[in-house]
Amino acid sequence: MPEEELNIESQLNQEIYTVIKHSDANNQFFADKDTLTFNDFLSNRLSIIFLIREGVPYSLFSLIQLYTPFSEKDWSKFLDISIKSLQRYKQSAKQFKSLQSEKIIEMAEVTNIGLEVFGDSTKFKLWLDTPNFALGGVMPMELLKDSYGKEMVVGELTRINYGILS
Fold it and tell me: Of 8, 91, 120, 151, which is the most buried if we count CB atoms within 10 A?
């Protein structure tokens, strides 16, 4: 994994630790931990639910944005808000609403799986932007706009990871 991706992961680990430690709802899951990784967080569904309900803070989103292969325009489409609204979130440093927070976490999960399968962001992005026979000839990126499509993409990534090609 390139050094830049490792640095982003390190920052993500620090930020998720900070966010979780300052969250009353999440303390019950990680209260006894002195360290917390982003992968720890993603593997705890209840913790994800509580963070989504509280709202993902912009500070965490900005790191997730760097971690994923998605452009600002992609994020605007995923979150169903304008790029200008995204910039306002940045300026005000406020938390995203539940629906947007859920989408942010979903895209982080997809990226986590994609990086595990392909090894780096460039290869993963190429796969996302290439029409896929197993997905009906549709580019995986197009399917990420809704939850059912996201599940199809995750399913295909899982099959690729296990060497099951459709």
Answer: 8
Q: With contact defined as beta carbons under 8 Å apart, do 90 and 62 qualify? A: yes
What is the rounded distance in angstroms from the CA atom of residue 139 to the CA atom of residue 24? 40
Rounded CA gap, 126 and 130, in Å?
6
The average confidence (pLDDT) of the chain is 90
What b/e readout covers 23-49, taking b as 16+ CB neighbours within 10 angstroms? beebeebbeeeeebbbebbbebeebbe
- In whole angstroms, give the CA distance from residue 7 to residue 3: 6
CA distance 79 to 124: 21
Contact yes or no for 79/96 (Cβ under 8 A): yes
Distance CA 93, CA 108 (A): 20
Helices (H), 55-97: 58-67, 72-79, 83-92
Reading the block at residue 18, the tokens are: 């900070």
Tell me the per-residue pLDDT of 77-93, one tens digit each, with 9 for 90 and over. Answer: 999 999 999 999 999 98
